[in-house]
Fold this sequence. Notes:
This protein is an alpha+beta fold and 566 residues long. It has helices spanning 3-21, 58-62, 129-139, 175-187, 190-200, 240-250, 291-302, 322-339, 355-368, 385-389, 407-416, 420-433, 454-468, 476-486, 497-509, 523-533, 541-551, and strands at residues 26-28, 35-48, 55-57, 63-64, 69-70, 74-75, 82-83, 89-90, 92-97, 102-107, 109-118, 121-125, 209-213, 216-223, 234-238, 276-281, 340-350, 371-378, 397-403, 438-439, 446-447, 488-490, 493-495. Strands 1, 2, 3, 8, 11, 12 and 15 form a 7-stranded antiparallel beta sheet that branches. β9 and β10 form a beta hairpin. α1 (3-21) crosses α4 (175-187).
Amino acid sequence: VDVQAFEREAKRILKEVETECGWMYETLHTDGKTKGKINYTVWSDVFVCPECTRDVIFWEAAVDKKAACVRDEFPCPHCGAMLTKRRMDRAWVSKYDIAIKQTVRQTKQVPVLINYTVGGRRAEKVPDRGDLALIMKIENSDLAYWFPADRMMEGGETRRNDPFGITHVHHFYTKRNLWILSALWKRATRKAKFGITNILSRNATRLNRFIINKHNPTGRINGPMTGTLYVPSEQVEQSILQLFDDKVIRHGWQCCGNLVSTASFSDLRQVSSMSCDYLFIDPPFGANINYSELNSLWESWLGVLTNIKPEAIENDIQGKDLNEYRQLMISCFKEAYRVLKPGRWMTVEFSNTKASVWNSIQTALADVGFIVSNVSALDKQHGGIRAMFYTTAVKQDLVISAYKPNGGFEDRFQKEATTQEGVWDFIRTHLKYLPVVKHGAGATHLIAVTERDPRILYDQMVAYYVRKGFPVPLNSAEFQEGLSQRFSYRDGMYFLPDQVAEYDKKKMTAGGMEQMSLFVSDESTAIAWLRQFLKDKPQTFQDIHPHFIKELGGWQKYEKPLELSE
């Protein structure tokens, strides 16, 4: 991309659209003389009072501007009856939709607040007659340019707004914003369209939320709710002209020499085998987010929709259960294994509230040949909306570190697999990849490296033998006896000779050693682990859950799988 040429083109497009459509964002200042430019308009749902059957504008009845909060219970402004959102029915409007050539019935919204700029300063006002007349004029006009009017695809998120009459792509935009977007799109070059997609499914839509609370007493734009197509009761209609200027032009563009591919990760035929030094993968987390459904809004503008057949998610409508998800992830990890150089690492970021999904990821990694060496928690400063609001959500993502065995070991293993030496060669190689120490809270205490636990080492060895199609030459008791004879033992963990010296040194300089965590593999060990974890202080479900998931070393097949909530 020629950045300067791109910016010149974007500015030209913006100037043309402003000249043609700028009048749509004009409003009269409260002095009755000066014109201002609208920054955004807040729209509110309208309900019907069950007592007097008159319209109740939610913004006016429920939002307490002085207390800066939205009240759960509030009086009807007409009859005084105490109301809640659940007790009221929605108000409806019917209109002819020329784009789909049929009459549609949709929930009623009205503009309740206009934020605008006049004389270089921001101001706010309640919409006046002129503002309402302007909106009516736009509503009664035919759009001059193409816009997508596709039926929303089958899906839990894409069809969640059907009961409210929001059934097609263009219903997710106000008529004014749809007009401006279509005018920009008509003029945009291919590269400019890439920039416009930045706003098509978020701030430009009716998903855009307006929040008022004690932290934001005058209210603020909060953007759409992450991971859903939820339409809020208080929507923000932002100026598309300002969004285009901010997100596409002022945001700035840089070329860093990155290569971007839009292929499926299950088919990386354009990447040579054993060519990658390191892989970082942030895959779909089971059924957490339905990506193709959420993408369908802006993809409809491009006229190209995601091929959902290889999409690696759990989705009832797509007919994909946990096993299907696991198989799709295996196909992706197979390609990752192929393109990664021997002896090199892959990091997988993962988050899911279900132990079954977590175990599916671990087994998928093992099935293709990766060996998991470490699982850590990634404490992101700003969690997703689900992590913040739902008690069963994981507040921290987990980071799985796995490696591809080097070629030298693989060659030796083929010769030694039927002997006990193959077992100990595997353990020596694996111990080299494991961290010697982990630091606890505040980096003053050391915590046990659970991957060095003899039970986990045995499971890793067995899994490797089974995957390679060889019989396991040692049972658990023989394995543990051999470990103690060949490797150094400290605090429930085994080390190579050079590693144990490093461990002893770091333990002496650290503030202490936290208790060895248990390897959770069945109900009994899960209960024991939970008792130990809660021994020092009470903790919330949200705090415990990521640690519980991290300690799942592989649920025993004869045990009924249990979630932490159970």
